[in-house]
Amino acid sequence: MKIFSVIIAVAVGVFVLLGYFIPASALIAARSVLVSWAILAGGFAVLVGAMNLAQVHFMKVRRRDRSWSYSLLLIISLLSTLTLGLILGPANPIMQAVVQAVIFPVEASLMAVLAVTLVYAAIRLLRRRSDLMSVVFLASAVFVLTAGLALPFIGQLPILGDMLGPWFSSVLVAGGARGILLGVALGALTTGLRVLFAMDRPYGGK
Amino acid sequence: MSNLIGLGIVGLASILLLAFTLIKRKSPAVFRNINALTRLRRAAGLAVEDGTRLHVSLGRGGLLTPNGAGPLAGLALLRGLAEQASVSDRPPVVTSGEGALSALSQDTLESAYRAAGAEEQYQPINGRATGLTPFSYAAGAMPITRDEYISTTVLLGDFGPEAGLFADAAERDQSLLVAGASDPAAQAVLFASASDALIGEEMFAAPAYLNTDDAQRASLTVQDILRWLIILALLGLSAVKLLGIA
User: Fold this and answer.
1) Distance between CA A61 and CA A72 in Å, rounded?
2) Alpha-carbon span A124 to A10, nearest angstrom
3) In whole angstroms, what is the distance from residue B201 CA to residue A179 CA?
4) Residue A188 has what pLDDT?
5) Burial letters for A70-82: b for 16+ Cβ neighbours within 10 Å, e otherwise?
6) Using an 8 Å Cβ cutoff, are B127 and B109 in contact?
7) Looking at CA atoms only, how far is residue A14 from chain B in angstroms?
8) Over the stretch B132-181, which tens digit does the pLDDT of each residue have?
9) ipTM of the complex
10) C-alpha angle B58/B64/B69, rounded to 5°?
């Protein structure tokens, strides 16, 4: 059984990969069918993920783990939102209100917490790791922020805002980012090939 | 033309990967020192000894996106860590922000325990989806460090700026944090906030530093060869442009 899953995974991977590079109509058609199946399976996986989430928190409530009351709140919210969604449909104004008045603000507040966290982390960076790269990192961050600053009445800072800032972003920052992305792309390529050749099998087996 | 170049690079990488995997090395592989991974190896051993847990977080998903290789590298690392921790009373806990990824993490944990001969220790509940949007995933995974005796947190996968929240939680709970992400914005956040950040391709090298797998080592060699080829191509094309040939 395991060998069949490996053969299917490898064959699908090869077809999809070739479909990207070789513009043969049969390959492109096969690729689009396989990718649409993957998207369908991905949609089902969301349901699996939600069930897994509920299961974890149900166990926390049953065992009276630390912070179990939050888990209970999560299960109640999950079930009530699911029931409402199934009865009313996702386009219903009540469902829209749940998304816009609860989920969006909660995520936005976490974003705000993140902004504070990052400022705090930047302040503490030199205490945690006082090396040349940390100094360069902090100096670059301060420089880019200052160059992008718009003051009342003056607008952008002269020279810094209209010459040095754009040069810094388009030459140094873009060059560095491309270097990092090239490294990531090479890593991604070999990782993908290891999975494609079934050397790594995260789908069970090896 | 660009399709042909792409196919050529993938073909060359495939041939090199298969060749280096099949060729048995006579001398042991020598790795460049990456502090974060040295510390991780030590911390994984210590966690088994002092009865604490490892928390491996694979990111918010994205298996069907161009960032899908990050979580796959995370799963390869998880395989090695889980096998190492299979003798521990407290098995590693794995979190992710996507259903498919949580299923894969459960599969990886199960196969690691099976390989270590400790199948009875495997509990599916240790592979969890903690939320299905980036911030709900982070909010669900953060308390695990505090609530479940975590001594080391590993972030390896597809993260965005929300990785900063993990770093803050790990620091508050005095847990070692080793983190790598494929997104450059997340890498910048992690460089500023994590105790040990993996930059660029270092995150893809992590499994090779913990596993003794020939394929993992071969993929590092292939990356090095391709990197040199890209450097030579960049220099050559710059020279050609400078001389005004093309």
Assistant:
1) 6
2) 47
3) 10
4) 93
5) ebeebbeeeeeee
6) yes
7) 11
8) 888 889 988 988 888 888 999 999 999 988 899 998 888 888 889 999 99
9) 0.90
10) 50
**Sign of the torsion formed by the C-alpha atoms of A183, A186, A189 and A190:** negative
How many Cα atoms sit within 13 Å of B115 on the Cβ side?
16
Q: Quick check: A203 contacting B, CB < 8 Å?
A: yes
* Per-residue confidence (pLDDT) for residue A103, from 0 to 100: 81
Nearest to A190 among B111, B199, B204 (CB): B204
Instruction: Give bridge partners of residue B54 from the DSSP assignment.
Output: B152
A50 vs B17: CB contact, 8 Å cut-off? Answer: no
- State the SS3 of chain A: CHHHHHHHHHHHHHHHHHHHHCCCHHHHHHHHHHHHHHHHHHHHHHHHHHHHHHHHHHHHHHCCCCCHHHHHHHHHHHHHHHHHHHHHCCCCHHHHHHHHHHHHHHHHHHHHHHHHHHHHHHHHHHHHCCCHHHHHHHHHHHHHHHHCCEECCCEECCCHHHHHHHHHHHHHHHHHHHHHHHHHHHHHHHHHHHHHCCCCCCCCCC
- The total of other beta-carbon atoms located within 10 Å of residue B63's CB is 24
Indicate yes or no: CB of A186 within 8 angstroms of CB of B21. Answer: no
Interface with chain B: mutation pick from A119, A144, A190, highest number of B CBs within 10 Å? A190
For B76-106, how does the pLDDT look when each residue is reduced to its tens digit (9 = 90+)? 999 989 988 888 888 899 999 988 899 899 9
Contact B33, B42 (CB under 8 A): no
